[in-house]
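[step 3/7] fold_predict: job queued, chain A
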Amino acid sequence: MNERTDERVAILETDVAVIQSNYVRQDAFAQTNGKIDRNFAELNGKIGRNFAELNGKIDSNYASLDGKIDRNFAELNGKIDGNYASLDGKMDRNFAELNGKMDRNFAELNGKIDRNFAELNGKIDSNYASLDGKIDSNYASLNGKIDNNFVILNGKIDANFAALDGKIDRVAMTILKWTFGMQISIAAFLLAAIKYL
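[step 4/7] structure written:
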């Protein structure tokens, strides 16, 4: 990756397109006439579909970046809100129903529920995975205990992280690239709203 920014951002009203490096819009993505909310490209080329209508069919699955629906992904009949892929292929399911079961765990990117992740009975909002496998728990109750710490992606609470007495609205991962090629992962707390007692 060179020093200049290679990514392009475009505002699209009705469909999704790929903006190539020469700023040419590629319209290979199928027309959508529903809302696609908070989608993020995954490392495997999938994106979140969040109840958009694609080619006349309400789609609750995932779509590949070429616009085709991924039929291998389990059908969803609940909202997936604020999905972020982690490096181990997990994503936030945020109280969606998967295959007829209310899921408060995490799901693999193939649509299967990760039963190894501890059951959550609170909302996890605006999650961002960091390279060390930690996520923001944002006042979720984990195994019956209110957790104001961070949670490791295996569902265990990171007791080494100091308990917070306020809400973290957004947590983002930042990767700094040094001139000698070394990369360092830093969890950057953006727009943190900490309420003190």
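[step 5/7] annotate
The mean pLDDT is 45.
The chain is about 0% helix and 30% strand.
exit 0
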